[in-house]
Amino acid sequence: VPFRGELKEREEQLLDTYEYVIVGGGSSGLAVANRLSENPKHTVLVIEAGLVDQHEDNVLLQRYLGGTMGSKYDWNVTTVPQTHLADRVQKLPIGKVFGGSSVLNGMMFDRGSPADYDLWEELGNKGWNFKELLPYFKKSENFTIPSTKQVEEFGITWDPSVHGFDGYINSGFPNFIYPQNKNFQTAMNNMGIPTSKDMGGNALNHYWSPNSIEPTTQTRSYARRYYDLIQPRPNLHAITSRQVTKLLTKETSTGIQVIGVEFAESKEASRKSVIANCEVILAAGAVHTPQILQLSGIGEKALLKRLGLPVLIDLPGVGQNYQDHPFASMKLNLANVEHSPIDLEKNATYDAEMKALFYSSREGPWTAGSPNAVAFLPFSTFSNRSAEFLAAYAAQSPDAYLRPGLDAKVIAGHNAQRKLLLAALSTPKVATMEFIFLSGASRFIQTPLSISLQHSFSRGYIEINSTDPFTAPIIDFRTGSNPVDLDIYVEALKFCRKIVATDAIQILQPTELAPGPLTQTDGDLRTFVENTVSTMFHPSGTASMMKREWGGVVDDRLKVYGTTNLRIVDASIQPLIPATHLQATIYAVAEKAADIIKADQS
Ligand SMILES: Cc1cc2nc3c(=O)[nH]c(=O)nc-3n(C[C@H](O)[C@H](O)[C@H](O)COP(=O)(O)OP(=O)(O)OC[C@H]3O[C@@H](n4cnc5c(N)ncnc54)[C@H](O)[C@@H]3O)c2cc1C
């Protein structure tokens, strides 16, 4: 697909000034760039640090899902050793490529429950609730209804009123779904857990999760479509392989004005700059947006002073409130399944046959890879000790397990979050854990039944440790720093065993490989969790939309406090991570952000 905006190769081809300069051509950045450049009078520049993908198989095909992690399209960053996870260092794949993490992601395309987004409004952000986000979920989406065969075989249902049908990102089910996914649904239903008609308006209990997949080619549908599919727009420019190194600012009577950005091709290359007449928009993702702010003198005063940076705006919340969905797995061998994705790796003849099938008809296992069978369960659904665990959180003092030395404002914000979370998690309206049946997905390990805590009380951070923009910031998830978080995994693992014990799964002849039959006590299961939990790749929350006195970084117009014209539109702004995979929410937020920016301009 040819580029429809103008992709520039050299700085000399850029204009000196643009109306809008967007930092980061990732999932949110390309969506916002598209919408802002709809007005031909508005010149828009996207600056992206990474390369442009070449439609390689490991980018486009579900068969090779996960194959870009660790590649040249990944920032390849790691955390500091995680104290509460047996001191393990964690890899954090994030996209360094035009399209950002949407190029790398696992293609699950779902939403949180309405109550998840309503929490954002309850935190004081007017207009940020599910009802007001729904039109933007729809605007970003082009949903393909399931085939008659899938409806008949799997009983997939859907609600057209919650989907969009002409947005840029395709969503739908792959042409092939492994039959054993149905066993997971039956197991859930037999345990009294219903199947949601459609996760779009009710992402709770068991549901069939769509993928971000293009229906005709059965390939990845990703943020590049916001760029590739538009008619030529001479007012939309993009430059890649250029890293923004800092914001250029000036003080005005109404606050700090960001007049442009500085960028460079490499650490050694000379710094270039470009001017923004209207606004600079940060879309660099939850790791790099706080890094850019801190490098530019916007962040916690003590940090900036320690590094000898000017303190333009003392905003202690920058880089704090890091949230993710930590992830653990029970591994199973299923002796009685016809096929699982691991067979593609193990059996070259079978793989070749399935490849031929894919290229002749876009059918078969090469179209599958991303999970479709999931359950997002409220706490009391999977544990009869939910009240006890929530009481344990409630009994903690607000700062008990936060990072030592945190600013009082950030602690106050966390306290506000925990009060809302404690109320929400005691209802059936918000999920505490995701359970994913990966027999139809993972091609690397034997069928995992994965679990992921959706609303950790632990909080991590992103913090520069150098004034060199080419040095990665410190990434500390602080997973499990609140011990109750890890205790909940033990409950979830025990529930996994109940799922496995159902007739619907027993018929598949499962053998538990990990944690394994010898790991039975709560203490041993907890040790297993500490030794195996990793990230689900959902960094968020590090420049949160919250009140300034709560450590917020942006207001509900997504404007950075203390600035006149700096917005943030990426995963950093989510004050509380919703119980879902993040991409659909990222696109919806970006669509809404574009409308906010347009409205404030006129
Ligand atoms: C491996 C993986 C699997 C995932 N699986 C799923 C899934 O199955 N389903 C789902 O819903 N979500 C999934 N996610 C999460 C989802 O893809 C992300 O939450 C989302 O894409 C983040 O969007 P963003 O706009 O915040 O950041 P990104 O899309 O990461 O965009 C940020 C962009 O900014 C660029 N950038 C950063 N710093 C600079 C700088 N200084 N100068 C210029 N450019 C810069 C980056 O290179 C990048 O292109 C996954 C993510 C990963 C990494």
Automatic annotation (TrEMBL):
The keyword Signal applies. Belongs to the GMC oxidoreductase family. Residues 285-299 form the Glucose-methanol-choline oxidoreductase N-terminal domain. Keywords: FAD, Flavoprotein, Signal. The active site is at H538 (proton donor), H581 (proton acceptor). One of its GO terms (molecular function) is oxidoreductase activity, acting on CH-OH group of donors. This is Alcohol oxidase. The lineage of its organism: Eukaryota, Fungi, Dikarya, Ascomycota, Pezizomycotina. One of its GO terms (biological process) is secondary metabolite biosynthetic process. FAD binds at V97, V244. Its cofactor is FAD. PROSITE patterns: GMC_OXRED_2. InterPro entries: FAD/NAD-bd_sf, GMC_OxRdtase, GMC_OxRdtase_N, GMC_OxRtase_C. The keyword Membrane does not apply. PANTHER family: DEHYDROGENASE XPTC-RELATED, GLUCOSE-METHANOL-CHOLINE GMC OXIDOREDUCTASE.
